[in-house]
Hints:
Strand order of the largest sheet of chain B: 2-1-3-4-5
Oligomer: heterodimer
Largest sheet of chain A: 7 strands, antiparallel
Structural class of chain B: alpha/beta
Radius of gyration of chain A: 66 Å
Shape of chain A: rod-shaped
Distance between the termini of chain B: 23 Å
Shape of chain B: globular
Radius of gyration of chain B: 13 Å
Number of strands of chain A: 14
Order of helices and strands of chain A: HHHHEEHHHEHEEEEHHEHHEEHEEHEE
Distance between the termini of chain A: 55 Å
Largest interface: A-B, 24 and 24 residues
Number of helices of chain A: 14
Structural class of chain A: alpha+beta
Amino acid sequence: MNLAEFRRILKQTAILPILLLVIMGGLALALIRQSSTATTALDVSDRITADIIDLEKLILDQETGLRGYELTHDPSLLQPYETAAAQMPQSFQALSEKLRDRRRQPLRLANLRDRYQLWLAFSQSVLARPADHLTDPAADVKGKVLMDGIRDEIREMLEAETRARNIRLEAVRLRQKQEFFVILLASLVIGIVLALFTRNRLHRVSRSYQTALAQISQTSHNLYDSQQKYLTTLESIGDAVISCDLNGNIEFMNAVAQDLTGWTASEAIGRPLQDVFNIIHEETREIAENPVDKVRRLNQVIGLANHTALISRQGKEFVIDDSAAPIRNAQGEMTGIVLVFRNVTEKKRTEAALIAGEKLAVAGRLAATIAHEIHNPLDSVANLLYLLTGEENPEKRSEYLQMAQQELGRTMQISRTMLSLYREPKAPVNIDLQELIDGVLLLLDRRIQQLSIRTELQVVDTATIEGFPAELRQVFTNVFVNAIEAAGLFGSIAITLSKAPPEELLPAGIIVEVADSGAGFPPASIEHLFQPFFTTKGDQGTGLGLWVSMGIVQKHGGTIRVRNGDSEPFSGAHVSIYLPTRSLLHTAPRIAAPPAVS
Amino acid sequence: MPTSSPLILCIDDEVCGLSIRKIVLERSGFRVLTAPDGPSGLELFHQHPIDLVVLDYAMPGMNGGEVAERMRAAIPEVPILLLSAYLDLPPSVAKSVDSTIMKGNNPEVLIEKLIELLPPVKRRLRKAP
């Protein structure tokens, strides 16, 4: 039931009783009117009776006056007679009007009038007599008979009227009884109708209420279940999770978080995050910025600085990898901060071992290349020395010596390049990237020659950056070897150095783009290229090259992007290495997002 | 009956080293033909009555192993000596050559090896220095 329906029912339950009461009022009014008509009829009857009695009294007055005059001859005694006689026609008229609607009474009245007229005529005759003959017994008898007739008629009329009144009275009583029953019945019916209707409506409301109640109860149940489910999920998650309110006070922490921080949830909840989540820079031992402050400041998801170590309550130290994110409500307002972190101490150790292993492998591969490079001129020198021992001709001798010197020069150059590989400074130094790349290409020259690969090196501007040369040499060796292998026989490789202007998050730097004419990356492989042990070279690759390269470039504050080219001849892999001009190695930020692959 | 000294075919992409080797071998009484890569080496191999081939392994385009296989397929009797800076050559290569020598050794080792590989008739025709 919705609100509109509920209002409709409310309206109905208000309007129906009013309607029924109006009907009831109308009925009562009609009954009262009927009853008053009946009462009026009774009134009329009473007035008729009174009029008849008045009429009789007037007639009696006349008779009494006449009798007095007869006995005393005193004309003054005729006064009542005269007065009554004057009123008589009026009284008859009034009575006749009242009796107009009656069936038999007008007839009786006419009889009465006739008899009165007879008596009146008799009375006139008495008055007309001479004064000495006023008393006449015979005439008196006649007068008495006439008057008795009048009296009989009047009695009859009175009796008839009384009968009529009684009948009416009976009718009134019957009606009253009927009215009583009608009202009783109507009240009963209305009462029942009202009761049934209200009951029905209330039932509906009540049912809706029950349904709504059940729904609310179900919803709250579901909410509770879902909350429990999420809590359990968070609780069982393999990463440590801590959530804080906007003030940085802990609201929730799961089992892993409790394990790593050494605080139990009951102890930690309500405390400021920095009390429980004590983080420092792994190497500098400086206290790291409170992630809650950082999220509030930046209002976005952040990754914590690289080399973050968590000191537990018991003083144990873990290298952690983590992120912090704002919790937002439906309106997008920040309502808290959630921290997710994991213990990467073991992973870091494994990674360090893998990196060391890959370094060795690279060194091994380089050593083999270098040995080969050195062998050729050494072979020539050995041959020349052999020739010199048996040569008498001074010209020939000096020619051989010169050739031997040349070959030795080549060897020296190679060995110098080799030496510089292992001279690694502690702090970042200025590096001319072009020089560094030239050096790497020189080392790889043999392989490039073998495969008759055409290389183009384009330098747009001076490309000096801060960094660690040996590590970057490793990166470029890796990328160039990949390009050489992909380009294959008679392939070509283009290396372009260009300046990258500063962008929102990236400072100004140099982009080294290496494009080859090979087959490109299999599309499905692109997102895995930077994962350790992923290789597209089968048994020939360790699967660590690009992963280690990415690590080195990220350490320098740069990124590596890979894509497949779309124009000939460089339709193969395009690897872009961005390196910032100013090294970020002093601040050691961590790249929060996975390597951007495009 | 052959009258001239043994004809050696040297194939190496290291042109400088190749020319020095040519002088060394000529001084040792051989006639020497040189080629800077596999295909031109094969051409010379077919044009001339080569007695022995000194082959570099790592060469652009066609490597020494491949060149040796083709020579074997054409004239199996000609001995082939593989000269290389690599320590570990693929096993298939070792099968198609008669012997291998590391670069950078004393040239006398190479000359001794050549004499050893030549058929006895040819050995005697070498004009000792």
